[in-house]
Amino acid sequence: MRTSKLLTAGAILILLVACSDATQAPVPESSQSAAAAGAASSDNRVPGITEASYRRHVSTLASDEFGGRGPGSPGEELTVDYLVGEFERLGLAPGNGESYTQDVPLTSQAVTNVPALEINDSEGNVLSLAYGSEQVVWTRRQVASAGIEDSELIFVGYGINAPERNWNDYAGIDVTGKTVVMLINDPGYATQDPELFNGNAMTYYGRWDYKFDEAARQGAAGAIIIHDTLPAAYPWATVENSWTGFKFNIVLPDQGLGLAQVESWITREQGEALFAMAGLDLSDMYEQAKTPGFTARPLALRASTSLENEVQQVISKNVVAVLPGSEVPDEVFIYMAHWDHLGTDASIEGDGIYNGALDNATGTAGLLELAAAFAQLPTAPRRSVMFLAVTAEEQGLLGSVHYASQPLVPLANTVAGLNMDGLNSMGETRDVTVAGLGFSELDNFLKVAADARQKVLSADPEPEKGYYYRSDHFELAKRGVPMLYPRRGYDHLERGLEYGRATAAAYTANDYHRVSDEYSPDWDVSGALADLALYFETGRAIADGNSWPNWHEGSEFRAARDALLAEAEN
Hints:
The protein is globular and about 80 Å long. By secondary structure, it is α/β, with parallel strands linked by helices. The chain has 17 helices and 21 strands.
C-alpha cells in the first residue's frame, strides 16, 4: 500500500511553476528548493560528480581490455565486476536481495553460413542479394536452421495495422505463409502531414521491431524491410554491423516458433532492383504506400533463403544498486543506462573491437557518477533511488525487457525514471534535448533544474528518428512508468548550434555502431558533467517529493499508468 498520496487538483494548481511552456506540469515544493540550491552553487557542480572519476569510468569501460562489452563475453564479466565493485565502494545497497545482479536468461544465436537472398520471377530470372553488403537475413526462431523457399512476395506498404488510426496495410489480403516487403518508418513521416500518425515524428508503428512482430501476427513466413537512410535514421553500415554476428534474444518458451521464419533488411538499391524485376517503380510504391486506403500488392516474385544457426543459452546480468529511502523506501525513482555494446568481431582484419565509448560507456559512467552524488548526501531522499545498468540493449532492449517483466520493485511503486544513452563529449551547451518532450509531467521537474542553471529544454530536432522508442526506458514507459530520456544538447556555448548539429551528425555517420566509437582524452566532458548535475537535481526532487507524475492525456502510455496508480491504491 502506498504511503504517500497523489496531489489533489487544488494542490497541483498551487504548485504550478510559472512558465510559458505549454508542456509544463506540477512540481512539488521540494523540487523548487532543490533548484534554488543548484542556482546558489558557485561552481555549478554537484558533490560526488567529478571529471576525473567520470573519465576513469568511461576510459575503463571503453578500453580494449573490456572487448566491446558483449553480453556473454569475457567483457561482460569485467564490466559487471567493475560496476558491482563501484557500487560496493560507494556503500549502496544491493538491489536484488543480497545481490547486485539480476540474471537475464538469453539465447545467443549466430548465422554460421553465408546466406544469399534470392528473388525469382516467373520467367526464371534471379536476383541474388549478397549477405552483408546488400542484405542481412536472420531468424529470431531459436532453432538450428530456418528458411523460406519460393515464398510469394507481397508489398504491404509500411506494414502497419493501427485500428485506432483507421489504418491497416494488411486489409483484404492473406499473407499466411508468404513473405511481406515493407518500408521503414510510417506514413506521417512520408507525408509530413501532422494529422497523419504524428507527422514528422516517428511513432512506434515506424519501428523495425513493430513491423517484424506485426508480420508474425499476420502469419507471414518471411518479412523484408527496405532500408532508407533518412527514414531509418541510420546508414546501411549500422544495419550490417547490428544484424550480423551473434544476436541475442530473451529465452522464448516456444523457441519463437510463432515468429516469422526469416526476417531481413535489404538496401534501397536492391529494393529498387526488386520492384523493377516486378515491373514496378519503388518511388511509385512510396507514393502509394503513404496514401490512406493503400491496398497491399502481390509482386509476382518469390523469395528463397536458408539459414544455419549456432544456438546457445547465455545468462547475462543486469546490475542494480539502491539508496534506500529515509521515509518511504518501498517507492523508487530509477536511473538507468545500458552497459553493453557490440563486442568484438574476430572476422574484421585489424581492430575488430566495438568499444562503444559514447554508446554507452558514457551513460554507464554517468550512472556511477549519479550514484556517487546520492551516496554523499547527508540524508537519503524520502524515496529510494535505484541505479540500474541493463544488459543487451543493443540486441533489442533485452535487459530492460527482462527487468520490466520481472521488476525488483513493483512497477506500481516505481514513481518515475530517467535513462542515459550517450552523453555529451563536445562541450557544454545552452540546451538539453529531451526525446519525448511533452509526453509527461516529468518535463517540468527537469525544467526547474535547467532554469536554475540557465539552460533551456529543447524538443528533439529529429523526431522522425523515433529516439524515444529506441532505448531502455521504453520498456518501462510502455508499461506505464513515466520515463525521461534527456539527450545531449546542440547549441554549443562557444561554437553555436550548427557546430553541435554537425558534430552529432558526424558521429552518426562515422562512428555510431562502428569500431571507431572510442574514448579520447581530447573529449570536452564539461557538457556531460553539467547534464549530470541536472539529472541529479531532477531525480532528487522527485525522490524527495510525494507526487506521482503521469503521462499527459492522449499519450499511448496514460492508460497503463492509470492502471498502475489504481493498483497501488488498492
